[in-house]
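Q: I have four molecules that I believe assemble together. Could you output structure tokens for the complex as a whole instead of separate predictions?
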Amino acid sequence: MEFAYSPKVLDLQAQVTDFLNTKIMPAEAVHREQAGEHGPWAQPPILEELKIQARARGLWNLFLPGEGGAGLTNLEYAPLAEISGRSPMLLPEAMNCSAPDTGNMEVLVHFATPAIKERWLTPLLAGEIRSAYSMTEPDVASSDANNIRTEITEEGDGFRIKGRKWWSSGAMSPRCQILVVMGLSAPNGERHKRHTMIAVPMQTPGVNVLRSTSVFGFSDGSHGGHAEIDFDVWVPRDHLLGELHGGFAIAQARLGPGRIHHAMRLIGMAERAFDIMCERAYTRFPFGKALAEQGVFQDWVAEARIRIEQARLLVLKTAWLMDTVGNRGAAVEISAIKVSTPQMAAWVIDRAIQTCGGAGVSQDFPLAEMYAQARMLSLADGPDEVHKMALARRELRRYAPST
Amino acid sequence: MEFAYSPKVLDLQAQVTDFLNTKIMPAEAVHREQAGEHGPWAQPPILEELKIQARARGLWNLFLPGEGGAGLTNLEYAPLAEISGRSPMLLPEAMNCSAPDTGNMEVLVHFATPAIKERWLTPLLAGEIRSAYSMTEPDVASSDANNIRTEITEEGDGFRIKGRKWWSSGAMSPRCQILVVMGLSAPNGERHKRHTMIAVPMQTPGVNVLRSTSVFGFSDGSHGGHAEIDFDVWVPRDHLLGELHGGFAIAQARLGPGRIHHAMRLIGMAERAFDIMCERAYTRFPFGKALAEQGVFQDWVAEARIRIEQARLLVLKTAWLMDTVGNRGAAVEISAIKVSTPQMAAWVIDRAIQTCGGAGVSQDFPLAEMYAQARMLSLADGPDEVHKMALARRELRRYAPST
Amino acid sequence: MEFAYSPKVLDLQAQVTDFLNTKIMPAEAVHREQAGEHGPWAQPPILEELKIQARARGLWNLFLPGEGGAGLTNLEYAPLAEISGRSPMLLPEAMNCSAPDTGNMEVLVHFATPAIKERWLTPLLAGEIRSAYSMTEPDVASSDANNIRTEITEEGDGFRIKGRKWWSSGAMSPRCQILVVMGLSAPNGERHKRHTMIAVPMQTPGVNVLRSTSVFGFSDGSHGGHAEIDFDVWVPRDHLLGELHGGFAIAQARLGPGRIHHAMRLIGMAERAFDIMCERAYTRFPFGKALAEQGVFQDWVAEARIRIEQARLLVLKTAWLMDTVGNRGAAVEISAIKVSTPQMAAWVIDRAIQTCGGAGVSQDFPLAEMYAQARMLSLADGPDEVHKMALARRELRRYAPST
Amino acid sequence: MEFAYSPKVLDLQAQVTDFLNTKIMPAEAVHREQAGEHGPWAQPPILEELKIQARARGLWNLFLPGEGGAGLTNLEYAPLAEISGRSPMLLPEAMNCSAPDTGNMEVLVHFATPAIKERWLTPLLAGEIRSAYSMTEPDVASSDANNIRTEITEEGDGFRIKGRKWWSSGAMSPRCQILVVMGLSAPNGERHKRHTMIAVPMQTPGVNVLRSTSVFGFSDGSHGGHAEIDFDVWVPRDHLLGELHGGFAIAQARLGPGRIHHAMRLIGMAERAFDIMCERAYTRFPFGKALAEQGVFQDWVAEARIRIEQARLLVLKTAWLMDTVGNRGAAVEISAIKVSTPQMAAWVIDRAIQTCGGAGVSQDFPLAEMYAQARMLSLADGPDEVHKMALARRELRRYAPST
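A: Yes, here they are, computed for all four components at once.
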């Protein structure tokens, strides 16, 4: 047991932190201003510049373990994802490490045909285009993946996809060119062998973006927004990702690292909120004493520090488990961090908001938008309750009387 | 001790509820659509229609105890304010009972000269214009009113007002024509005798609206938005509200009923969220059983019901105390509801969001915007911590050793 | 709607408070000392003296609405039960208003034959003996009354009762002479028509007290302790309480007022804890400043005050509902206070413990024992979860789609 | 970074677990029975047998890093302390690893003269006697060590110690023979150079044990109880521990490892409670379904698992920090675990109590006593609030504006 980061990680942390401090933080105000001018989902020019700089520094596709990526383990990448969470609207995308593209790229690496890779993975890895993930549906309880009912049927030498999706993250970006879509291909197949994952180019006739949905009052541009989409499209057979009816397993495989990434970015957000509240507390003097010296505020600081440290350690251990025993062996821990990190981050950010007063809920701080993201992550990919139930059932098995 | 509403209140509740159910609820979707077209702070046409209907039904200015109002006590108005909170973006304004106008109208009724009343109060009472309240300042800890430093100085036969305000609620509305401004007029005066309240017409040269601030991504159009304003203006002497250097007392007087109104609207919001979560729970079937039959969800329902009932009773008792022993005698209770109702409402709304999944944070339900309003009210008019401190000190007095 | 206590209640409150302050509080230390000498369940001599004094003052059997009692409504008695909770180990019993005797006396008043009343109710009303309530069983989930399986069968001109009970509150007292026992008499009867309630004199052959169970480390002498009892007894037919197979309804009827009493005593306990923590805070000066002036402590004071006030109002409203619309009409509220008041009280008492440091968990304050009682009441008469479920289902009915 | 235990630790864990499962768990009932017969603080015979067995297995004095101990690091001992917490009333003492003896032995090893070591440390290491720690005083806010005022003055060739202590843990044990006492020796010395630590044999004339104090009704026999003691004694100069006026540093040094030990035992208690609640949930069927299958219960299971895992990791990291950078470098983490582990354990144990119903608060499960211990540890060695304040101030330093 050893809690020190490896020299390799320490070096990468230093590099990403330097990029954060010298390039990203000064760019945040510019980004906010440009986003106001260019609209919620367009890529502001400053971001393109930052991408060039990140790539020049070798801080690019760090999330990707193998081919085309940085070759880092989950345990090595996690601390870098954390740093990227300190500027969540800028740094992940600047390093080409933003959701939902990271998960989509992983799926394409492992499950796409060479032609599809050439056509869509290459520009994604180069940060030239973005992608979307289309799983959730408006009419069913999406917490249970078995409810998904968009139809995928064989038609000619390809597949027809018909159905309605929403919360298709990424699809509002004008730079989004490819969708990863999950649908029901074998309604009567055995459980977990009913769904298929398929790549659908954005320009395919029949991809009809109806509207965007907001998160609290935000359009969530850094994730490319969230689209409601009507699908009635045909794509050639080679757009199939992995096996026919093998979509469930791909979705599961996609989620493991994704949860580490989300969790570590949340820890970064919490640290950013912690910085903001501590700095602010030296500039405000209600009732004659700096907030930093007031008992209730100090109580929040201590609570925040305790919660952040505990959450980080559990996420890191989960990353280590995924690296050493795989997603299956880390199932309890993956569920655990899925539940606990968004709640932790939401709590810390909420206290930072309270510390900043009105400024805290406004656009003058990233707090309200970070809160919306953290809160959303107690819902996205299944609400907390589903993951707690799964975790509990797995734990309880050990105690079930043998019958 | 008697917990039944009076016949008069029961009758008014029935009337407001009927208006809510038959006119307001069906108009919500229209309002949302029109708001999208007309911009965040414009008054959508549907609202004007609803105002006409409300007025025709006699559901108008119910908040105002005396002259020009409905003559209701706090205890009589509170249950009506609650109902208005069930459609917080529409019903308060439709009945001309929305913040910050209610507080401003009360101030004008009690402290304005006849000329000012004629010019500004009359159209406000008629719902023809809106008003703003300018108290908070960006550079000081506004939780402590003594920190306010916008200067009010005598100049010729009037006053010059110089300073920067923000969170001037109402001032983004194109229909806003009058500002109630608080400033520092006697920096060396005794505590609570330093500030002055003054009416400033929006069109006065030197009122410079710099920008709006958002609340969790929302522009808060139903309150007329929140403006940052630079003031360098002169107004004639008769724009003074009440006594010179008597602003603090006016601010305090303004807050008492305001807190009842906010608190009761929050209870209405919580009831609306409760409806939404209970209805939703019969339409979603994760893992083969309606959400309504699942244990964790039922636990939220019970918790929500308990919290709502307890909060409502305390607010009603506070209203009763204000009616019978006045603001001063109700000081502990006013602080208590200032702290407890926003937290209660935020909790209930948050559980409703969780119940609705992605839909809950989106524009498809009023939940995210209601959450933003409830959360904001743990900050506005002083953060919870200040009110808890005040409450505690008042309680502790009883135990202080006599020295 | 009217929140003032009636003159009658104000007068009774003054009388009980005077008795508390002048007689009970000074007796607490004596009582503790005598309890140490006489053993956990014996009645210390001081208590007998206090009973005489209470009776002389007319503060006797206040709980009993009709025959032999004070004729108070629930709403009138509740504020007096609250005061008795401020000295929970002494005052309820001193006024002959302690559990489980109050509930048992009510059952006997309504359901016993004249002979049984003469033999057992009369001395109970006179405070000469105590009684026990035998419902819970060790081998089943007692949260669900339908699980109770102690057998009651007709035998000769009477009934045989066979089974094991525990948590028979009151039965460890050497003064306990009568047990109210619930058993299964019609295993195949329709739900809620299967159980019978019966009076069993303590001296009946076959009543075998096996041991006592503790509550945290306390023997709970003020409730007469809790006994595990093996029953194999025969009692004559006239010991039947109410109808054969009608026990469930009696148990329900017994619970309504019992919950008001428990809830109000809990509020009294919370007020006592509040007093203790506030007084203590002026006597301790960690880090150079009285605890009373420290922010975190003040936060607890405010929270405690808010929680106590809200809980009290809900209990009072529940009492009012029971008086006006009956137990059935108050079902949601009865469940609500069953859940919320023990949690409220436990929280306030816990903060008082934390304020007092080591002294708080010791015998030097009543806090630890009050905590144990409050915590126990989240379990007794069904755990919180059962009552929340019942409450939620009742609420959800309003939203169930008509089928 | 590496989360696997070392082979050495895995081997020791297996040994201690085997001892727990085969010897300790079957002895718990015997121990409880014997404790009832022999009185609260006597050592029941079964414990002496277990000590012999533990020693024979080499599971003895594992806590002690150097001379006479097992030579384990904090990181190596911590997981063993955790296992001992699963049977907190038996296993720590059986392995001669129970508080307050462990801390006292460490103090004697490092700061006692050879004669004192020979006389008292040798039998302590052999488990032949027990010891007590006398620090807290009844009349001052002990959360602030600077308040301690028991006088230590030079007198002849030794020291006189005069004052009143309470919560002298260990001193109620009839086997206690030596006290480690902290007193004020230089009232006007510089802060942290005012106090002295000294060894006082229990039999010294003038050691007057006045009474014991209880913890939630428990006598806390496994820690040797808690005594209030009046001191007016003289001891020879060689009873001085470390430097004159150097007591504060010794107290600090004593606390570091002590907090790790307490924290890990708390995690063991939480795991024990987790076992109990999960096992129980398969034996109770309220409303027709095993508790193990009910949603609210599963929610507790998931929450408990998450909280336990997070707390354990933070304690292990703290142990690692103490081993690698020392107490000072681990100051934030030591404060953090001091606060978070008792709260975590209290929460888990409380949910286990709720799961077990009445049995949970009774002597039939160790839950109520474990709750009392966990709750006590939010107070002992300074209440949570003091440690949070210290933690927060240390964190805030990084943000303080340079002046």
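A: One point stands out. Chain D is about 50% helix and 15% strand.
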